[in-house]
Amino acid sequence: MISALGQAVFGLLAAPLLVAGLSKLFVPAAGLSWPYGSRLLAAPHGPRLAGAAEIGAAALIIALPGGFAALVGLVSYTVLAVVAYQLRGQKCACFGAARLAAVGSAHIGANLAGAVVAAAALPFLAEASPLPRLVGCVAGSAVLVVVLRHFDRRAAEGTDAPPCLEPVFGVRLYVSGSCPACRSLHTLIDRMEPARRDSITTVVLNPGDERPAGFDGLGVPSATGLDATGEPVCSPVAGIGDVKALIDRIVVRLPGGTHAG
Question: Are the beta carbons of 87 and 105 closer than 8 angstroms?
């Protein structure tokens, strides 16, 4: 017989699936960052199908006996870990419109942790006890929503730098070797056109290195725009979103002396 606390663990396993599924179903497709473009998985149908599958899996984890519920959780989180690995470096509407960092090791690790917990629960074949599972699901969902809102606000705040009105012909990017966000950003940069990548100068900051002027208080990745002579223009920015937005503003020199934004 599984204790009420043990039954609540199944609810905690269901919570992320439920929140993710509801987010995909109720957030307008225009507000989702969705990485798939094939006919079956393309927006707006793709997010809805994925959301419905996640909600269905959450319902089965709540309703099925222990071992079967654990099996559903194991399959669900294993699939999500594989998908996260394939999407690393891309932005994905994992939780609807929540502005999370690009998919990286944290997403993969969280899904693998869910798979491990589910695998540990496989031997328990007791009948489902819906009430403690529902309590665990509600509690886990509430905590997850609070965490998502926190990250959402942090992403929205950015660096509070004033908008740059000068033409940007290059970007000087500051990273460190121990920065997961820097690795995610480089994955995004690797997928840009060569001319834009060639306009980025990357400086690796080692522990103890002095920050460049104007970058006090900013973390990594951080960057500053450069004019046509290579001199800094506008205020420095930090964070994946703000840095990528700055890189996207680079005026790319095309053959023949023309430019493209």
Answer: no
